[in-house]
Amino acid sequence: MESYLFPFDSLICMLLGISFTVWFTLLLVFIIVPAIFGVSFGIRRLYMKSLIKLFEVSELMLSVSVILQRGSAEPEFDMSDIFYFCRRGVESIVDDEVTKRFTAEELESWNLLTRSNYNFHHISTRLTALWGMGVLIRYGFLLPLRVTLAFTGVGLLVVLTSIVGLFPNGRMKNYLSDKVHLMCYRICIRALTAIITYHDSENKPKNGGICVANHTSPIDVIILASDGCYAMVGQVHGGLMGVIQRAMVKACPHIWFERSEVKDRHLVAKRLSDHVADESKLPILIFPEGTCINNTSVMMFKKGSFEIGCTVYPVAIKYDPRFGDAFWNSSKFGMVNYLLHMMSSWAIVCSVWYLPPMSRMEGEDAVQFANRVKAAIARKGGLADLLWDGGLKRGKVKEVFKEEQQKLYSKVLVGSSEDRSRS
Amino acid sequence: MGSTNSTLLKIPNVEVLMQETGFSPAHIIRLHDRFKALDKEGRGHLCPHDFGAIKELAMNPIGDRIIGAFFSPGKETVDFHTFVKILAHFRPVDKDRPKEPNSPEPINSRSNKLKFAFQLYDQDKDGKISRDELLQVLRAMLGMQVTDEQLESIADRTIQEADLDRDDAISFEEFRKSLEKINIDHKMSIRFLR
């Protein structure tokens, strides 16, 4: 019995060994090495183009099936079916290259992810088969690949920044730290299959400034940091995040606050100003909205970062919802859940616009300056410029705004009674 | 709001436009940017050729009908005001708007949205959708997926169900009645234009 199984056993081992080696070599050559040098084979863009074609095909199947399969044998038509095409047509007139699809909440064409399939039930076998294949590919092939890359990227980040931290402070250390950070973030980008288009790179943030961007998900950080070197700002975490933070700060100065320090606005402002005043330190990366917005609008910018009085480099980030919704609703999903969602999507496609630097003008206070920057970001990214405070997701309306409304209302009341008394 | 204000000032009669259409200044600016992008030769108005250059519109089965909706009969060009006013049809309905008795009906009302859709069918603008016009639209939307006989029977059935006064054509009132139960706001609105 046993001798019968033996050659079989070693054959399996050999096959496993070979496939493992092949797999690893491919990974190294096609993904990790380009990440180190910052070049690209263009594999991801090719992948994106084929995905778009796939969505178009599935959309065609869907739209025709929806119209044809209402009823039993005879295809039935409704006068309202024209609305679908009409709306799509007008959408294409209104949209432009800058902002592709705005329907992040409801996709007209199904991108073969169940989580965005609200109204479409089993419509045609072909479509369901396509979806099934999609599931296999995403969970069976893409997810393990991405998780491997993610672990590699994070692991390398921790190890290499700790090594760089051993160097004495100076140009060599800064150079190495930049290279190490960029390389690890690029691996993480590939771990998410993020396809990013950077526009106007001549406006990239420089030392001694603050980079300000709209916030949709924690991935924003990775997206920006893989194209330039920034000093991060954030709260000190425990666990794995804490390990990463401590390692990163050994290589170059990031700004991590203890939980208690975050409340002290003056302390925060002082640390930021000190950092900015030092020309040799990297530009600070800040997300003034304070919470993740669902990427269709830019909510109010908190004025804290705009009081520091240095050059602000605004950046607009817009995700293409066709490939996967990058929005993180932190009150609904935890971080791990969210990352799993991201890694089992098709891809993350987004555009980044570097806007020209702005400074506070004479006679402009911090709030006005913040609004000005916000309007510029919303306009570039094609995001609707909303007045609402993003913190509303969790808290109540700030007293100041309530007061403003009360003032207006009282003016109307008092004004109208005055008119009455005059007449 | 420095840069946004200066762009708004360049657009003539922008206050009237905002009031008639209900668009916010931010939207007007975005639409103005888009208008300028479509107007590649910088003439200040658009012609059918400019719309035809939009790839997705060219692929749309009723693309040419939609383009036709922008040009009133006899006119060969569309200026920014008309552009915005037509697009205002696709604004989502303002649910919290107070109903003032003497103000004109907003462009994005349910009735006006229906009128816009009606004119996509009624190409000769005689106020009725004839059987031929219906067949043309059906053929455009369904392409080669159905046979001629199926097309004819669909058209027959549609007219039979909707045509109440038996004149073998669908008037606007009959059109409106057949779509009573449909959520027009959802189907004929583009969310980001809110």
UniProtKB/TrEMBL annotation, chain A:
Keywords (A to Z) from UniProt: Acyltransferase, Lipid biosynthesis, Lipid metabolism, Membrane, Phospholipid biosynthesis, Phospholipid metabolism, Transferase, Transmembrane, Transmembrane helix
GO cellular component: endoplasmic reticulum; membrane
Subcellular location: Membrane
Organism: Cyprinus carpio (Common carp)
One Pfam family this sequence matches: Acyltransferase
Protein name according to UniProt: Glycerol-3-phosphate acyltransferase 4
CDD domains hit by this protein: LPLAT_LPCAT1-like
Residues spanning the membrane: 20-43, 123-141, 147-167, 338-355
InterPro entries on file: LPCAT1-like, Plipid/glycerol_acylTrfase
Keyword Lipid biosynthesis attached: yes
UniProtKB/TrEMBL annotation, chain B:
Subcellular location(s) per record: Cell membrane; Cytoplasm; Nucleus
PROSITE patterns, per database record: EF_HAND_1, EF_HAND_2
Protein's UniProt keywords contain Transcription: no
Superkingdom to which the source organism belongs: Eukaryota
Pfam families: EF-hand_7
Keywords attached to this entry: Calcium, Cell membrane, Cytoplasm, Lipoprotein, Membrane, Metal-binding, Myristate, Nucleus, Phosphoprotein, Protein transport, Repeat, Transport
Domain EF-hand as annotated: residue spans: 109-144, 150-185
Keyword Metal-binding appears in the UniProt entry: yes
Predominant place of localization: membrane
Biological-process GO terms, alphabetical: protein transport
Molecular function GO terms recorded: calcium ion binding
Family: Belongs to the calcineurin regulatory subunit family. CHP subfamily.
Name recorded for this polypeptide: Calcineurin B homologous protein 1-like
Species assigned in the record: Cyprinus carpio
Phylogenetic lineage: Eukaryota, Metazoa, Chordata, Craniata, Vertebrata
